[in-house]
What does this fold into?
Amino acid sequence: MKAPRVTLDQWRTLQAVVDHGGFAQAAEVLHRSQSSVSYTVARMQEQLGVPLLRIDGRKAVLTEAGDVLLRRSRQLVKQASQLEDLAHHMEQGWEAEVRLVVDAAYPSARLVRALTAFMPQSRGCRVRLREEVLSGVEEVLKEGVADLAISAYSIPGFLGSEMSPVEFLAVAHPDHPLHRLQRELNFQDLETQMQVVIRDSGRHQPRDMGWLGAEQRWTVGSLATAATFVGSGLGFAWLPRHMIERELKDGLLKPLPLDKGGNRKPVFFLYASKDKALGPATQILTDLIQRFDAAPLDEAPDSPA
It folds into this structure.
């Protein structure tokens, strides 16, 4: 790649001439001589091979090419300033990236609120979000490739902060044979029916989600696929209420009237990596995740402080 001929300082000089109405005004703002400012702009035009300014009376006016290049240069200068700010923040211990792994059953609406509030405080820190299922979260955390993890399981060797429970319902399509029995159901009723099970994304000790007493099973890779299968009449499953609220409201899914176990509320936990201390950005994101986890899902998010 060819090295740029025009420097950021030259672009800043051109911006000052345009923004402040002339060479003399720009020189005063930049604390430079007028001749230095004039030479800088003239040199730019020579290097670029196109005129950037024309003199209209006593005022320097942008040419058409100058207008296009100046608009592009503003973004360039802004990005350079942001890069310098990020370097300064990193020198002070601010992270360039926070890696967050989340069980796919955790309500995404809560994460959206936390990440939305994090953005204006991030100082350029990126969030790398990764979704896993069941033991997949634990594996990612133990492998050291996550700074924070949200899981419904107690992870050995880690101290987790307790979060809100997530409600799971045993559901099937309203026309499913189980609903046609028109009575309270027990697990014996489920044994002869097709159960949809979510595949664990973990590789070492995979687990299955939900009761596994049914002789016939569909094993799928995501909760969304499971909801689609069950909503189409292909079996029954335990699914998070927050993911199927619309299907329940529209009558595409209906809770199974089980005598026990039809409603489950596993508690989720927030874990932090043991490999390194929490940096300031990770700590801010941790606080926001806990804050919005405690807020009702139907409550409108407030503005970040």
Q: What stands out?
A: Residues 64-91 form the longest helix (28 residues).
